Amino acid sequence: MKINYKIENENFKVTFCPDKQKLSIKNKKNSYMQISKDLKKLNHDNKILLVIDKNINNKIIRYIINDLKLSFPDLKILYVLGSKKNKNLKTFFKITDRLFKEKFSKNSVLISCGGGVIGDVSGLAASLYLRGLNYYHIPTTMTAIIDSCIGGKNGINFKNIINSIGTYYHPTNVYISKTIIHHLPNREYISGIPEIIKCGLIDKSDLLNYIKIKNKIIQRDFSFISKIIKKTLVSKIKFFKNDVKEKNNRLMLNFGHTFAHAIESSLDNNLSNKAEILRHGEAVGLGLLCEIYYKNGKNKIFHQIKNLLDLYSLPTNLKFIKMNKSLLKKEIFKYIFLDKKKIGKFPRYIGLKNIGRPKILELSNNTKIKNTILNVLFS
Ligand SMILES: NC(=O)c1ccc[n+]([C@@H]2O[C@H](COP(=O)([O-])OP(=O)(O)OC[C@H]3O[C@@H](n4cnc5c(N)ncnc54)[C@H](O)[C@@H]3O)[C@@H](O)[C@H]2O)c1
After folding, report:
1. 355: helix, coil or strand?
2. What is the per-residue pLDDT across 275-295, written as a single tens digit (0 to 9) for each?
3. Could you tell me if 247 and 344 lie in one domain?
4. Per-residue pLDDT tens digits for 219-273
5. Ligand 1: residues whose CB is within 6 Å?
6. Whether residue 199 sits in one domain with residue 157
7. 115 and 165 together in one domain
8. Which residue, 144, 162, 184, sits at the end of a domain?
């Protein structure tokens, strides 16, 4: 499938057969009003399910619901919980059960409102229920806003492997809101930064310079942040628009992710209380350092990225984790070999020769992998 993207003013308009996809970065207080407007124009059967993350600020939840209910009083609401431990079949079935219970048709609408987890699981449900119904998305964490909201990758974690079951299905509209960004807890806001850094590294853009301007980011200066959001999304589009199914160019967006997913799996699957120690974005920051180190050692780019992570107090090692360290090292090594990008004998990763020059490579040297884990994550 070939997807064409167009970016017009503040609107990011995506067209693909046969639907149109539009991303609007709204500067107005009432940004959700646009959803009702768009829904009124859409040919649907008035059945709308809003899947919403319970952790979102109550005022925002009420605001979104009240606004939608004004135009669609019969709106159905399903409260779910984000976090990686809920990215599973149980949450998926919770959504599809509700669609069946309310007798939704292919002409009905699913709106998801949440971070990367709720977006990925709802997208999967939207793609599989009756082989696809109308789907809108409101991303509510920085990771979701600058990354997961576009590109159409959906999924759940299964058999302890991240995103091992999934589909490609694009939301028709994505709504990014200033109010949500303004109210985000600091961790859900800052943990989006490593994915922005990733785009700044694989693409020759000025994103890395933007990330250095800490005061504007910390103050949540929306006109500044919306530039970063747009640049990051534009960069992501460049990599996947002609390669949705990730055969070559899109793979570059996985920079840092072979190590990041192994770190996340090792922690999430070994902690007895299933507490989420690292957000996905935080693990990506560590993964970037590991993949740069594996190819080039502690070179200039390594230090540049470590300094940026330090600037936002993002983790740059795993020394603070309260888990048996030798077990953790072994687990990370094990999970690297379970990475779903692996197609041959060796796991794949993205090596960076220079900024803007990423390359798909293989982790073919076990000693080097072990040294990377040791020298980056535990020294
Ligand atoms: N599909 C893609 O292209 C893509 C890209 C990047 C990441 N992802 C996936 O995204 C997930 C990580 O995303 P995430 O970090 O957003 O995780 P998440 O959705 O679990 O959100 C992190 C935490 O923030 C809470 N939360 C969400 N919105 C909130 C809000 N507005 N206010 C307060 N709390 C809020 C959640 O309940 C959760 O506890 C991973 O599963 C990753 O695989 C997917």
Report:
1. coil
2. 678 999 999 999 999 999 999
3. yes
4. 999 889 988 998 998 899 889 888 889 999 999 999 999 999 999 999 988 876 5
5. 53, 55-57, 81-84, 87, 114-118, 120, 140-141, 143-144, 147-148, 151, 153, 163, 180, 184-185, 188, 191, 279-281
6. no
7. yes
8. 184
